[in-house]
Design a protein that fits this description.
There is one protein chain. This protein is an alpha+beta fold. It has one domain: 2-Layer Sandwich (Alpha-Beta Plaits). Helix content is 26%, strand content 20%. It has six helices and eight strands. It has a four-stranded antiparallel sheet with strand order 6-7-3-8, sandwiched between helices. The chain is globular and about 35 Å long.
Length: 210
């Protein structure tokens, strides 16, 4: 199952019963979307200016294929069926903590033309959820969210190039800093329902991000 939770190292956080939330339809999310694309589906920079993306926190990310091409597989009867590239993307996503030991993976979903996932960065001991923006005064960031996503994307692209498979990523990616447990559960629900909403989202790129 690709809508898959991983073990994560929270402290002082009581996780709500996610299955119960979904079953009882207690989770709602905002349907009003800001513009996320310009020109031909090129994602605008979604980085929060001045924010240190190497600090501890949980981040919701969306990574898209070029021009929303369905490189990863197809939805059949509401279920995502991964093709070769999709299986590689799934494998490489699961392997992120092997290359970035300061990362814990939460729930994620691979869709035909995009990937949703929640990443927790645990570089140092601090709060579990991202605080208000903190200025980065140390120059170029390392061990941060951008380096994680870049490494993942490069890995998938190298595999397809080596195996003569046509594939391209959309430049950049979308991220959202998760502020609290309520927001975390809302985003989890959104990710798990993504395949159910495929017919609505596939022709509406602004719906790919919450």
């Amino acid at each position: 199952m690709h809508c898959s939770p991983f073990l994560f190292s929270w402290t002082n956080v009581e996780t709500q019963n996610f299955a119960s939330l979904r079953r009882n339809n207690l989770v709602r999310y905002n349907k009003t979307m800001p513009e996320k694309f310009k020109n031909k589906y090129t994602i605008k920079s979604a980085r929060l200016k001045g924010y240190d993306y190497s600090q501890n926190g949980m981040y919701f990310v969306t990574i898209c294929t070029k021009d929303r091409e369905c490189f990863f597989g197809e939805i059949v009867n509401g279920r995502m069926i991964l093709n070769e590239i999709g299986k590689i993307a799934d494998q490489f996503w699961r392997e992120i903590p092997k290359h970035f030991p300061f990362v814990n993976l939460d729930i994620y979903q691979i869709m035909p033309n995009h990937i949703h996932g929640i990443i927790e960065i645990i570089n140092v001991e601090t709060q579990n959820f991202a605080s208000l923006p903190k200025r980065n005064t140390f120059g170029p960031q390392s061990k941060n969210l951008a380096s994680i996503i870049r490494g993942f994307k490069v890995g998938v692209k190298k595999y397809t190039t080596k195996n003569d498979i046509f594939f391209f990523w959309q430049p950049r990616y979308y991220d959202h800093i998760i502020r609290n447990e309520s927001e975390l559960n809302r985003i989890r629900e959104y990710i798990c329902k993504n395949s159910d909403n495929w017919e609505k989202d596939r022709n509406n790129p602004e719906n790919l991000m919450m």
